[in-house]
Amino acid sequence: MTRLYSMDLRDRAIARVLAGESVRFVATALSVSAATVVRWSQRYRMSGSAKPGKIGGHKVGILVGPNRDWLRARAQEDFTLRGLVAELAELGVKVDYVQVWRFIHAEGLGFKKKRSARRATEAKDRPTTRAVEEIPGAA
User: Fold this and answer.
1) Is the entire prediction scored with pTM above 0.70?
2) Are 16 and 29 in contact (CB under 8 A)?
């Protein structure tokens, strides 16, 4: 992202425009675009200052309120993230896969398989499988 122009430059541009110089002449003299000087002049006429507006900030998520409650209740059953996105779309809530993933992760609703559930490890409660050579009828 580019940096903002200094207030000193903005004030000098506004002062020159108010003194009667053309926008293009001021822009050339200060090495900025004419559109920039026009925007500063418009901002000055509207608010009395060429000070830049707020940049950035926090955007409230869409998965709040009733959507949050529905999603928390729905996550108590088996789900897939893409399935939740499709169900929310049916309800008229347009969300992205990543938004749902972040919500599930932040709320601690995800399902993590346990190490003991892996198939590659030996099970303690059932007999081990036999090698292929030990199976009758196998050559």
Assistant:
1) no
2) yes
